[in-house]
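Lecture notes, part 5. Sequence design as translation. It can be helpful to think of inverse folding as translation between two languages: the language of shapes and the language of residues. The source text, in structure tokens, appears below.
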């Protein structure tokens, strides 16, 4: 009895989801981790067929039934599982036939992959962004040095020219050099360290809304969906305003250039607990979603949209999103993007524990 109780206690304290099916593919047992994963109790799921929570694919159901009779185990990688609440999960699961008291049973072990895939995706995004920033810094250094020489030579040449008409050409050289220098400076971003002050995210959004409303003359609806429970956090208010404004302004311009009926931008804030950003886990994170109903970002640039000089607009500089990502990275956060026609979402995850 003690041994049986110990085995049950062990199963119920596992972080991996464990489910035991009978020969009719009905749930005989599931541990608390499985209940949390499937967002339903064992009592509720025991009344459901396996096709309602694991798979409705006839071929997969046939493999499950064949596993009971043949006794052959198998594994599925990155399978899609629909919870009872309708949420789609990416999971790995293993099926092992397990005869108990001469009764064929199936032991299913399920491991959620969504969080791991998210961590891998975020780490890859952060790594690519850091590599791009290092490349830009190196190129900027190599560009700015000769630009200084060209500008100085043009100024000296202007002093030597007696013909005033020729000064127009040296002015063009100096102006173009200054334009290139300003472009390089924008690529590099600010050299100053972020200020450490108390930031109210909703104060930031109200400032951005005022600026955008003035620019679009109220032609675009700005819908606010705020979570008032989000506390203030330590950061650089001006830089966060710049990051949010860059994204909202991009959305505004995309809506203005399209023929969308009832153009709208939604600003939504939520407090999220125990969130992993990159490889770091934070107790509390401010999640800011900026959503527009525009035409969406072209699929061929969606994966590189945060790189410098990448833009979906003919007259775009491609610096706004790169600068926004750098600012949020400085606050130990991350910006993610999902886009399809009619819905583009930029999600800013800002830890409320600024280190």
């Amino acid at each position: 009895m003690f041994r049986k109780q110990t085995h049950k206690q062990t199963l119920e304290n596992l972080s991996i989801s464990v489910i035991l099916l009978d020969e009719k593919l009905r749930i005989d047992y599931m541990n608390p981790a499985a209940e949390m994963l499937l967002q339903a109790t064992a009592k509720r799921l025991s009344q459901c067929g396996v096709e309602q929570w694991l798979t409705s694919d006839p071929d997969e159901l046939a493999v499950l039934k064949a596993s009971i009779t043949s006794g052959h185990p198998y594994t599925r990688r990155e399978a899609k599982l629909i919870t009872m609440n309708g949420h789609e999960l990416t999971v790995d699961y293993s099926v092992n036939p397990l005869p108990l008291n001469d009764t064929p049973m199936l032991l299913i072990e399920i491991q959620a992959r969504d969080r791991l895939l998210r961590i891998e995706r975020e780490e890859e995004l952060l790594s690519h962004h850091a590599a791009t920033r290092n490349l830009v810094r190196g190129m900027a250094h190599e560009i700015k040095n000769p630009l200084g020489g060209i500008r100085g030579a043009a100024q000296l040449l202007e002093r030597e020219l007696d013909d005033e008409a020729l000064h127009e050409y040296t002015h063009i050289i100096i102006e173009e050099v200054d334009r290139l220098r300003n472009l390089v400076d924008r690529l590099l971003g600010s050299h100053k360290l972020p200020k450490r002050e108390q930031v109210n995210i909703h104060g930031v959004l109200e400032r951005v809304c005022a600026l955008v409303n003035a620019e679009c003359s109220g032609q675009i609806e700005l819908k606010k969906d705020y979570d008032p429970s989000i506390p203030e956090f330590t950061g650089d208010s001006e830089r966060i305003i710049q990051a949010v404004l860059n994204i909202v302004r991009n959305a505004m311009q995309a809506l203005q250039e399209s023929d969308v009926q009832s153009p709208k931008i939604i600003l939504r804030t939520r407090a999220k607990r125990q969130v992993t950003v990159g490889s770091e886990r934070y107790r509390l994170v401010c999640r800011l979603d900026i959503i527009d109903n525009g035409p969406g970002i072209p699929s061929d640039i969606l994966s590189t949209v945060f790189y410098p000089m990448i833009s979906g607009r003919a007259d775009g500089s491609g610096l706004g999103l790169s600068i926004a990502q750098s600012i949020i990275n400085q606050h130990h956060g991350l910006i993610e993007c999902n886009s399809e026609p009619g819905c583009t979402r930029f999600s800013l995850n800002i830890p409320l524990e600024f280190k």
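The translated text above is only one of many valid answers, since several sequences can fold into similar shapes. The longest helix spans residues 114-160.
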